[in-house]
Structures are given as C-alpha cells and as structure tokens.
Amino acid sequence: MYLLDTNVISESYKALRGRADPSVAAWLADVALAHCAISSLTLMELEIGVLRMQRRDAAQGALLRAWLEQRVIPEFSGRVLAVDAGVALRCARLHVPDPASERDALLAATALVHGLTVVTRNVADFAATGVPLFNPWRRWAVQENRGRYIAAP
C-alpha cells in the first residue's frame, strides 16, 4: 500500500486537465487508488493551497475547492491517516540525531507506522528516514511477484 505525498495528489489535478507528467499520469491510471492513503498533513497542505488560490483567483480557487471536496476527500474516505501517538513517537525518533523537516518526518513516520511506501517526487527529503520510497516521475516498472512499483532498471 502507498502513502501519497501532496505533490502526487496535486499532479492528479493536472492529470484531469491533461497537463500531468506522462509517467505520473500513467502510474495514477495504473495504480488502484484503493491501495493508496493520504496523511492528514497532506489534506492540510491541500486545503492551504485551495485557500491561497481562492484569495488570488476566485474562479481557479472555486475549481480547486470543487476538486478537493468532490474528488479527493471522497476518494480517500477512510484512508486519511492521522498523526496519532504512534506516529508522533516514531517521528520524534526521526529527529535524533539530525533534525528533519517536521512535515516530511511526520509523513515518513506515518508510512513507517502503517507499513506503507511513500510516493513522492521529493525522495531526497525522505532518504534519511529509511521509509520505502517510490518516485512516479521517474521511469517505473511493476515488480510482478510482489505487486508493487519500483524504479525501472
């Protein structure tokens, strides 16, 4: 199962308009979103993006609001993972000895606690955490015997 970073969800919005990276669009079309989850932090970041857009461009903000409320939230209903005690404690361990970005560490901790692979463009931000990573912007292949996606050779 996969934990999608905000940049993957944002790319799905572009995919609806035919503007997504082709590799990401192909991965989104191939993966069963029922096998994907998002963090409550991702939902927060998406809401912040919508609110900012509504202030700058009301029409575009309305489109983003509709996408978030009518597509993203229903799609991930029951699969929005909270920052709970287990995630908080695991996150704390990711900060020692070297402090990490709070949001990235919380996302990595969420994936580690739930046994998920983080799907992100920003793999370098998570490399030190030890969390399994997948970057759909790079060439990818399905690892048939395990039913998961890996970087293509």
Automatic annotation (TrEMBL):
It comes from the Bacteria. Pfam families: PIN. Signal peptide: none annotated. Keywords: Hydrolase, Magnesium, Metal-binding, Nuclease, Toxin, Toxin-antitoxin system. GO terms for molecular function: hydrolase activity; magnesium ion binding; RNA nuclease activity; toxin activity. Mg(2+) binds at D5, D104. It is an enzyme of class 3 (hydrolase). Residues 2-123 form the PIN domain. Its cofactor is Mg(2+). Its EC number is 3.1.-.-. Belongs to the PINc/VapC protein family. Toxic component of a toxin-antitoxin (TA) system. An RNase. PANTHER family: RIBONUCLEASE VAPC2. This is Ribonuclease VapC.
